[in-house]
Specification:
Elements (H helix, E strand, L loop, with lengths): L6 E4 L6 E9 L3 H8 E2 L10 E9 L2 E11 L10 E8 L1 H13 L3 E2 L4 H8 L5 H12 L3 H11 L2 H25 L10 H30 L1 E7 L5 H9 L17 E7 L2 E7 L9 H16 L2 E7 L4 H12 L5 E6 L6 H6 L6 E2 L8 H12 L14 H22 L4 H19 L5 H8 L7
Helix pairs in contact: 4-5, 6-7, 6-14, 7-13, 13-14
The chain binds guanosine-5'-triphosphate and magnesium ion (MG).
Guanosine-5'-triphosphate binds next to helix 8.
Length: about 450
């Protein structure tokens, strides 16, 4: 990985805007910019200063710009950084990029600025990943989690534990050096206590993934029921747009249709499905199969019947639903067709009345969803694992530590103990990037946007 050259990219979105920001990072960032900057000698300026001037291609004025200087190591990447704020025209931006590339800069790859920041020790790997999450965050909850991780919540917690484990690993290594003398530098009871302590932290982090993942990607909620009860009408009412086709023909929806909605800062992912029934239609049958598959993956099912069905019919369907063991919320749609007496028949059951078509009861449904998913009480300032890579490393650490525990209890040589502790350290290190490979870094940073 070459970090000796100077990289350049547009850091603001493509397209025209009031201003565009072009960023350079690397040893020659300032001197390269200086070659095309008319106004003053940028190489003679101090860090953290702004300079108004012209970008010139020979005699041609390309734009009037402001150049911000950050002298290494006081910058995002810890290298020399220049941020050129120019007028946000595609043409100007292309001209400036081409010009600076001609003078020696290289077009940056996705995430390369953040990669350099990581390689230069500005933060650890999980914090770098949080930068991407922060940019992608589109709700208060996902923002809270990302900013917490970026500011090191997760890393600090792991670093402390890893340091203690490193201490034991070195003690046991020492024992190996004195193998003949049968000494014990690493107190086994203390080691056991430490591992149990680490395990409890690991378990908390591992079990936080489900919530973390939901906050990042949305709470999956499946709308299911028999054909024609009004599932697609409800999806449309929730989203406030004609997202799904609605018709009086049973079996209208064949495939799953999904979209997100932000309710009180939490992203819900609503999934409208094909109505459940036995059908000879091959395509519809495939749709029903999908419905059942999605129901099993849901965090919550909105199970819908309509006013044409009786409480007994509802009960029968709910009995079936109980078999898949996913929490549900029963709703009776088309309540506009009910008289009070009919409503009373349902009163024994715990149901929510709804008229999706008339948009009655939809707000109450949202409130019920929030309560049911019980997310209102979550504390996003607590460390949550949101990244599958971290989850896997945590699980691997846990397994390695389980081996350590076994080996303490079994009368076995210290060699194995040392090996298993090293394994655990390896996996813990993967999260924060103490242990990395080029492939891993490539994989992580290629998902970033260019210019970050
Ligand atoms: N009166 C009344 N009609 C409704 C209501 N909600 C939906 N409908 C009607 O019921 C019919 C079926 O609605 P859809 O939303 O397509 O039903 P669905 O459950 O998605 O049906 P499938 O996709 O076939 O499974 C349409 O004619 C809707 O206009 C409601 O609250 N009241
Ligand atoms: Mg439908």
């Amino acid at each position: 990985m070459n970090t000796q050259d100077t990289i350049i990219a547009l850091s603001t979105p493509q397209g025209s805007g009031a201003i565009g920001v072009i960023r350079l990072s690397g040893p020659d960032a300032i001197s390269i910019t200086n070659q095309v900057f008319a106004g003053k000698d940028l190489t003679q300026q101090i860090s953290h200063t702004l300079h108004f001037g012209l970008i010139k291609d020979g005699d041609v004025i390309v734009d009037e710009v402001v150049a911000g200087l950050y002298v290494a190591p006081k910058s995002y990447t810890k290298e020399n950084v220049v941020e050129i704020s120019c007028h946000g025209s595609n043409y100007i931006i292309q001209q400036i990029l081409n010009l600076l590339i001609k003078k020696g800069a290289r077009a940056a790859k996705p995430g390369e600025f953040t990669l350099r920041a990581f390689l230069n020790g500005a933060f650890d790997l999980s914090q770098a990943e949080a930068v991407a999450d922060l940019i992608a965050s589109d709700s208060k909850a996902s923002h809270d989690v990302a900013i917490q991780q970026m500011r090191g919540g997760f890393s600090n917690e792991l670093k402390g534990l890893r340091d203690q484990l490193v201490h034991f690993a070195s003690m046991i290594e020492l024992e190996l050096d004195f193998a003949e003398e049968d000494v014990e530098f690493a107190n086994r009871d203390q080691l056991r206590t430490l591992i149990l302590k680490i395990n409890s932290v690991l378990q908390r982090l591992i079990s936080s993934f489900e919530m973390g993942n939901v906050l990042k990607n949305g709470v999956p909620i499946v709308i299911a029921g028999k054909p024609n009860v009004g599932k697609s009408t409800l999806l449309n009412a929730l989203l406030n747009e004609e997202r799904a086709i609605v018709s009086e023909i049973a079996g209208t929806t064949r495939d799953t249709i999904e979209d997100e909605l932000n309710i009180n800062g939490i992203i819900f992912r609503f999934i409208d499905t094909a109505g459940i029934r036995d059908t000879a239609d091959i395509i519809e049958a495939k749709g029903v199969e999908r419905t059942l598959a999605r129901m099993k993956q849901a965090k919550l099912i909105i199970y819908m019947v309509d006013a044409l069905q009786t409480p007994d019919e509802l009960q029968e369907q709910l009995t079936d639903l109980n078999k898949i063991d996913i929490p549900y919320l029963a709703v009776v749609n088309k309540a506009d067709l009910f008289n009070d007496e009919q409503k009373n028949e349902f009163a024994q059951k715990e149901v929510l009345f709804l008229s999706a078509k008339e948009n009655i009861g939809v707000e109450e449904l949202k409130t019920a969803l929030l309560a049911k998913v019980n997310l209102l009480s979550i504390n996003t300032s607590e460390t949550l694992v949101t990244n599958i890579r971290h989850l896997q490393a945590l699980q691997n650490t846990e397994n390695a530590l389980a081996n350590v525990l076994n080996n303490i209890d079994n009368p076995i040589t210290s060699d194995f103990l040392a090996m298993d502790i090293k394994q655990a350290l390896h996996y813990l290190g993967e999260i924060t990037g103490v242990v990395t490979t080029d492939d891993l870094l490539e994989n992580i940073f290629s998902k970033f946007c260019i210019g970050k």
